[in-house]
Amino acid sequence: MNRHTLLFTALSLLLAAGLAGCGGQNAGDDHGDGHAHDEAEASHDAEGEESHGHGHDDHAEEEPEKGPNGGRLHVQGDLSVELKIEESGQPPRYAAWVTRDGEPVDPSEATVEVKLERLGGQVDTHRLTSVDGRLQGDGVVGEPHSFVVTVNASVGNESATWTYDSFEGRTTMSAKAAEDAGVRVAAVGPGVIAQTLTAPGRVIVPPQALAEVGAPFPGVIRRVTANPGDSVAAGATLATIESGASLSSYTLRSPIAGTVMSRSAEVGQRTGETPLFSIANLDGLAVELPLFGADALQVTPDANLRLRRLIDGHEVDARIERVLPSADALSQSLTARASVPNDDGRWRPGMAVEARIVIDESTVPIRVPTSALQRFRDWQVAFIRIGEAYEIRPLELGRSDGAWVEVREGLNAGDEVVVEQSFLVKADIEKSGASHDH
Fold it and tell me: Is the pTM of this model over 0.70?
């Protein structure tokens, strides 16, 4: 490639870059015009077109114009109000700065009122008065900061009103979409919270359901008719034994109906004092639960409990029948015993279980199932539904029994709360981009 060719190539590249730069500059100018805050946009803002975290708008919302104090700026004619929720080191309250014709207005000469309409129709009114050179609200702005905002301001005979949406932690979902997703709601109200103690245990055959069968007279076993796992009726033949004293044979029978658990009898074996068969009635089993620590002293006979079979997670309700009178000298544990209803026929002696024993029960004004709770920012929340709108409710929680949780603050009796698939509602809110417009 000669020198003239190289020069022509370089000039072509420079020309192309220059044309691209011109095109980029024009695009940037269009973008800037789209974000200009002129008088027409101030009127547009007054009509309340902004929405955050509400539905699924495919177009990004414009950020509201900010004032010198970092608050949202509202302009109408010669009057402007900068409004901000201040919460650093204090409960959240509104603060405002007012200007007219571009000049600051003495707070004592301005009137600002903020009305917040929340989901469900509740309206909170905040009146701002002069404090430390600015206007400050007379009440705390409760969470969530999700509402339709109406700002009324006046200076002398000049007044202005702005209305806009400021939503956080809110989304909408049609009834069909919610049904298809498995989202289910239920009204909250009073209920029982049980204080429980968790204890491991194992299944046993209670003494009254177990029979150890031995030979009443010494002799030689001539025939064995029962094997481990066999079901036998009361009086069924287990073995035939030839007496060593009379040389006559007698029949060894089962004293109870049940299942043969073990057999040590073999043909030709001489009998002694050792049991030959163990028979158990598996319809009536029990569990033994070692109880440790001071909580063990709170377990009493007749206490209700929930038993979970560790092998497959199957659960049944049961009741403490007795707490054995002596403690284990080494572990200092007590032992509680409860009957096990063999509801599915699969409970077996020796199986491991986990028990949740109820040691106290209290009725609380409002409770929610644990399935209703989600983490949102720094809060534990539930999601209420009004119409097709869903919104967070930060909660102050109390006692829990693993299935239900007491709600001390954040919900009212009768509120419809998402109790199934609450994580889907959380994901929907996060997808739609909840904001905290301060």
Answer: no
Q: What CATH number is given to the structural domain containing 295?
A: 2.40.30.170
Q: What is residue 245's DSSP assignment?
A: T
In terms of Cβ atoms closer than 10 Å to its own Cβ (0-12, 13-18, 19+), residue 212 is middle
How far is 229 from 279, CA to CA, in rounded Å?
10
Angle in degrees, CA 118, 136, 81, rounded to 5? 80
CATH number, domain containing residue 412: 2.40.420.20
Domain that holds residue 379: 171-194+362-432
- Integer distance in angstroms from the first to the last C-alpha of the chain? 64
> Hey, which residues does 104 pair with through a beta bridge?
99
Residue 23 lies in a domain: no
Is the bond preceding residue 190 a cis peptide, omega within 30 degrees? no
| pLDDT tens series, the chain, 438 aa | 444 343 334 434 333 444 333 333 333 333 333 323 333 333 333 333 333 333 344 444 577 899 999 999 999 999 999 999 998 888 999 999 999 999 999 999 999 999 999 999 999 999 999 998 899 999 999 999 999 999 999 999 999 999 999 999 999 999 999 999 999 999 999 999 998 889 999 999 999 999 999 999 999 999 999 999 999 999 999 999 999 888 899 999 999 999 999 999 999 999 999 999 999 999 889 999 999 888 788 899 999 999 999 999 999 999 999 999 988 888 889 999 999 988 888 999 999 999 999 988 899 999 999 999 999 989 999 999 999 999 999 999 999 988 999 999 999 999 999 999 999 999 999 987 654 554
- Best CA proximity match to 279, nearest among 196, 204, 205, 170: 205
Same-domain status, 120 and 176: no
